[in-house]
Structures are given as structure tokens and as C-alpha cells.
Specification:
Helix content: 40-55%
Largest sheet: 8 strands, mixed
Distance between the termini: 7 Å
Low-confidence stretches: none
CATH class of the largest domain: Alpha Beta
Number of domains: 2
Strand order of the largest sheet: 3-2-4-1-5-6-7-8
Order of helices and strands: HHHHHEHEHEHEHEHEHEEH
CATH superfamily of the largest domain: P-loop containing nucleotide triphosphate hydrolases
CATH architecture of the largest domain: 3-Layer(aba) Sandwich
CATH topology of the largest domain: Rossmann fold
Radius of gyration: 21 Å
Structural class: alpha/beta
Number of helices: 12
Shape: elongated
Length: 316
């Protein structure tokens, strides 16, 4: 990124996490009125949990804030630095890039998530990234329930120069996935991105269909899909925890993409997810344009959620 792009990205990320950083600002208000004691630490933990950071991370931050400071004062800047450091510790193990193995051709990426999470748009943005890297890409319109999703993916294929495979609306999604893997092999595509219909994690029949898609892929390539990305909507908060748990158990999620990090986002939930599931986080999205999806950086995210102004060097 050039300096202008870095600044623009940082502004969107910190703006997208404004709700979470504002919630954490209540800690500063608490400590400004009194010295640190056991009661204040307990209230700080409550604030952190309400900000969706999860109990484990809340415990660690509260303990770090209180360490060596009981009955003493602490500045707002120190509070933010402690929060950022502890959040970064929680996120660093899961901040992993999505690695495309060139030995697996096509490298099959199945993209799943609940209705409205941003799967199809995410696929389009990923296609643009892979095409910019010079890779040949095929998009498969596996959301056969929605004609609009098929059309949307077709537009992305035209925009990015990716090849495209679809069936008529209402067609069998598993059959489409089978055809897509076979076609990608025949055409020598390096990456195959497969869209799927949005499904609620508590609908057994829809999860069964997703498992069927995985099974038919394995008939052509026993190792496919090589990556299963779960797209999470950052505005749903605690519900994202159950989404990760169920999709992971049903189809073996290998990585996460968090979308819709705008001013209404409850981004703290990503910290709770990292602490509980240790599933890699590959990308985060802060808007609709193709440049609004970026590799996940634990340091950038932690500093933004703590409300710190400075960008981290990891954007360089």
C-alpha cells in the first residue's frame, strides 16, 4: 500500500470499530473517578464483556490493568495501550494469510455463511485479488436459490476476468459444485471459488446440503475443498460464536472472513471467537468496494478497537 492507501484503510478500520472502541471508552470514565481496586476491576470486566470481547480476554485485560496498580492511578493512554496489547495477544495466533497451494489445481475454496453475511461480494473481492496476482480463477454460482446471487457473481466474473459456471435458479447446488470442480480441472484454473446459499446454522436440512456439496467435490478430488471460508457479519455480535461452532463442526471451517466492519459493527466478537476457537482469520472487510477487503492484521485491529490513533507498521 502507498501512504495514501494506508491512511485511507486505517481511517475506515478505526471508523468501522468505533462502536467497540466507544464501548471500551467507558473504562476510562470508570477509572477517572476513582483509584483501581477490586470493585473497579470487576466493573472493568463487565464493560469488556459487554463489548463482546469474551470472558477470557476480559479477565486478561482486567488483570493486566490491575497489575502493580492497585490503589494507584492510571492514565487513559495507558488504559488504551494495555487493552491493545492484550487484544493483540489474543488475535496474533489466528492472524494467518490464506495460502493457495499451487500443487492443488484447482485450489478449491468453498465459501459459506448465513443469509446476508456478504458471501457473494467477498467471493468477488477475492477473485479480484487472485486475478491481480496473475492467477486464473473460476467462480461457481452455488447459491442456486437466488437468481440475484447468480447474476451478482456473473458480474464479478466479468469485472475480474474470471471464468464463470452456473445453472438455472433452483438447480441442485451439489451437482453444480461437482460440475464446477470438473470444469476447473479441464480448463486448468488455479483457483475455484464456490458460492453457497445463505443458511441459518440451526436449519439441519440446509447444513445437510452443505455437507453434500463437500462430499461430491471429494469424488473428483479427495482433498477438496482445500479451504472452507466462513463469512461473518460483524454487526451480529454474540450470534457469530454459534455460527463458527456449528459451521466448523458441520463442514470443517478452515478460516474466517469478517465483513461489514462499519460504524454499527460489534467487532469485539472477533476477539472472543479467536480466544474460543483458534480458527484462522484471513480477511476483514470495511466496505463494498474491491479494495475494502484486506488481509487481517492483529496489531491494526487491536489498536483500532482500543481507540488508538496511530497506525501500526504492519500496513507497510
Amino acid at each position: 500500500m502507498n501512504d495514501s492507501a494506508k491512511d485511507n484503510w486505517w481511517q475506515r478500520l478505526s471508523g468501522g470499530l468505533k462502536r467497540s472502541s466507544s464501548a471500551l471508552g467507558a473504562i476510562t470514565d470508570l477509572i477517572a473517578k476513582r483509584k483501581l481496586d477490586a470493585e473497579t476491576i470487576a466493573e472493568i470486566k463487565d464493560v469488556l464483556i459487554r463489548a463482546d470481547l469474551g470472558i477470557a480476554t476480559a479477565d486478561r485485560i482486567a488483570a493486566a490493568l490491575g497489575e502493580g496498580r492497585y490503589e494507584a492511578g492510571i492514565s487513559p493512554a495507558e488504559i488504551k495501550e494495555v487493552v491493545a496489547a492484550e487484544v493483540e495477544k489474543a488475535l496474533t495466533p489466528v492472524a494467518q494469510p490464506l495460502a493457495i497451494d499451487p500443487a492443488k489445481k484447482p485450489f478449491v475454496i468453498l465459501v459459506a455463511g448465513v443469509n446476508g453475511s456478504g458471501k457473494t461480494t467477498t467471493i468477488g473481492k477475492l477473485a479480484a485479488k487472485f486475478r491481480a496476482e496473475g492467477k486464473s480463477v473460476m467462480l461457481a454460482a452455488g447459491d442456486t436459490f437466488r437468481a440475484a446471487a447468480i447474476e451478482q457473481l456473473k458480474i464479478w466474473s466479468e469485472r475480474t476476468g474470471a471464468t464463470f459456471i452456473a445453472r438455472e435458479p433452483g438447480a441442485d447446488a451439489a451437482g453444480l459444485a461437482f460440475d464446477a470442480v470438473r470444469a476447473a480441472k479441464e480448463r486448468g484454473a488455479e483457483v475455484l471459488l464456490v458460492d453457497t446459499a445463505g443458511r441459518l446454522q440451526n436449519r439441519a436440512e440446509l447444513m445437510d446440503e452443505l455437507q453434500k456439496i463437500v462430499r461430491v467435490m471429494k469424488k473428483l478430488d479427495p482433498y477438496a475443498p482445500h479451504a472452507v471460508l466462513l463469512v461473518l457479519d460483524a454487526t451480529v455480535g454474540q450470534n457469530a460464536l454459534s455460527q463458527v461452532e456449528i459451521f466448523r463442526n458441520q463442514v470443517g471451517v478452515t478460516g474466517l472472513v469478517m465483513t461489514k466492519l462499519d460504524g454499527t459493527a460489534r467487532g469485539g466478537i472477533l476477539v472472543a471467537i479467536a480466544a474460543k476457537f483458534q480458527v484462522p482469520v484471513h480477511f476483514i472487510g470495511v466496505g463494498e468496494s474491491v479494495d475494502d477487503l484486506a488481509p487481517f492484521s492483529a496489531r491494526d485491529f487491536a489498536r483500532a478497537i482500543a481507540g488508538l490513533d496511530s497506525r501500526s507498521k504492519s500496513l507497510d
